[in-house]
Amino acid sequence: MKKRPVSICVKAVPRAKRDEIVGWRDGMLRIRVAAPPQDGRANAALEALLAETLGLRKAAVRVAAGHASARKRVEIDGIDQPDLDRRLAAAGFSLVASGGAAD
Fold this sequence. Notes:
103 residues; Conserved Hypothetical Protein Mth637, Chain: A
């Protein structure tokens, strides 16, 4: 039986100075990427940054909804919610410390 992917809400900011995860705000993970929002380049940069931060393959992270919007739903394969929370906390992005709530 295949596990369902974990889903998080992301607020993306394209054309930033550099690729970086800013942190949680209002239940969304804020991510800045240098790529422009053209031809899916910003989405690809967001997926790559999240995959690298989480220690996963690029293919395990995908924008599932909001492709042309700043607000996106990202699905992550290969981990469960507690593991996602641990990996983000280890990278310095704890949802609990931010006072937010995930979907």
